[in-house]
Amino acid sequence: MSRQLLPILSVLLFLFLLAPTISFADASVVQDSCVAVIEGPPPWPVWTYFTIVNFSLPAPVCDLHFIPEPQPPDPGCVMIGTINAAGWSSFLNPLDGADFFANTLGDCVPVGGSKGGFAFLLDPDYCCYIVQFTDPTGAVMLEQEECFTCQKVPVETRTWGHIKGLYE
User: Fold this and answer.
1) For the chain, percent helix, then strand, then coil, each to nearest 5?
2) More confident residue, 13 or 38
3) Which domain holds residue 135?
4) Structure confidence at residue 141 (pLDDT)
5) Is 62 within the bounds of a domain?
6) Bridge-partner residues for 118, per DSSP?
7) Using CA atoms, how far apart are residues 65 and 92, in angstroms rounded to an integer?
8) pTM for the whole thing?
9) Angular region, 112: left φ>0, alpha ψ -120 to 50, beta rest
10) Rg of the chain's alpha carbons, rounded to an integer?
11) Number of domains in the chain
12) Residue 92's CATH number
């Protein structure tokens, strides 16, 4: 009897130890990439692209509201432009953040689904926002902090001969 019980207890112990490391997020905004807008002298503004993921909210996500924190926001964390996915609209809000809205109920992010192609423009080193996920009626289903960072890599001007010399 003890030989049959040992594998079961081992599996239960493994699951017990693993459980605290599993994240149970209902929804999230996942940063996809950053693209610098290189115009004029630095610092350059950066497009931060993201995807909305609705893991298990009780309804589709139809609106997303970004509220910078702290208020008032740091100057580099003020949103100055937006890009919205197909079927969505976006606007800068008076709190220096942005609001994204599904144009129709069919454009909302369903439970278990995701939608990419969103972006906001700012010059961030590291910015955090309170993000509100709302249902088709506009009711806030989830409010959580989401932070974004885009690493800026310094560039040094070098000749081809110098670069080639590094590998000889």
Assistant:
1) 20, 40, 40
2) 38
3) 24-166
4) 96
5) yes
6) 50
7) 10
8) 0.73
9) left
10) 22
11) 1
12) 2.60.40.2230
